[in-house]
């Protein structure tokens, strides 16, 4: 979607639209290299780029993908750039959510809350007994 929208964005006379379209096609190529290197079998450095991208932490990938997707939108704010970069930005958002970690279950949170409440009550009763 990013590559097709970038190509469509290049069919204009506005230089900012052309720059945003070229950047979007570059984004698509980088996403293919990092996320689906089997699509780029005939590019010699595809495996090296993919291996390097796999070593990055999830929050680093999130920042990289979201930053890549926001730049063309800042260059040329059109529907084509918004929809074209939506998938790249969504990929960054998903990596960001995975960096936050897995959601805890309600039972463990209830236990932690109960222990915290119990400790607060013990501190309160200890200070009241110390004052008396």
TrEMBL record:
<keyword id="KW-0472">Membrane</keyword>
<dbReference type="InterPro" id="IPR019365">
    <property type="entry name" value="TVP18/Ca-channel_flower"/>
</dbReference>
<dbReference type="GO" id="GO:0016192">
    <property type="term" value="P:vesicle-mediated transport"/>
</dbReference>
<dbReference type="Pfam" id="PF10233">
    <property type="entry name" value="Cg6151-P"/>
</dbReference>
<feature type="transmembrane region" description="Helical">
    <location>
        <begin position="58"/>
        <end position="77"/>
    </location>
</feature>
<dbReference type="GO" id="GO:0016020">
    <property type="term" value="C:membrane"/>
</dbReference>
<keyword id="KW-1133">Transmembrane helix</keyword>
<dbReference type="GO" id="GO:0012505">
    <property type="term" value="C:endomembrane system"/>
</dbReference>
<protein>
    <submittedName>
        <fullName>FLOWR protein</fullName>
    </submittedName>
</protein>
<comment type="similarity">
    <text>Belongs to the calcium channel flower family.</text>
</comment>
<keyword id="KW-0812">Transmembrane</keyword>
<feature type="transmembrane region" description="Helical">
    <location>
        <begin position="22"/>
        <end position="46"/>
    </location>
</feature>
């Amino acid at each position: 979607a990013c590559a097709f929208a970038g190509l469509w964005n290049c069919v204009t006379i506005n230089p900012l639209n052309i720059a945003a379209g070229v950047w979007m096609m570059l984004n698509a190529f980088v996403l293919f290299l990092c996320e689906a290197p089997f699509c780029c079998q005939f590019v010699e450095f595809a495996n090296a780029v993919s291996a390097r991208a796999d070593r990055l932490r999830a929050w680093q990938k999130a920042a990289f993908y979201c930053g890549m997707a926001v730049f063309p939108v800042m260059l040329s704010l059109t529907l084509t750039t918004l929809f074209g970069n939506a998938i790249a930005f969504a990929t960054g958002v998903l990596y960001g959510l995975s960096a936050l970690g897995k959601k805890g279950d309600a039972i463990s949170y209830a236990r932690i809350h109960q222990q915290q409440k119990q400790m607060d009550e013990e501190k309160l009763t200890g200070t009241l007994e110390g004052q008396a």
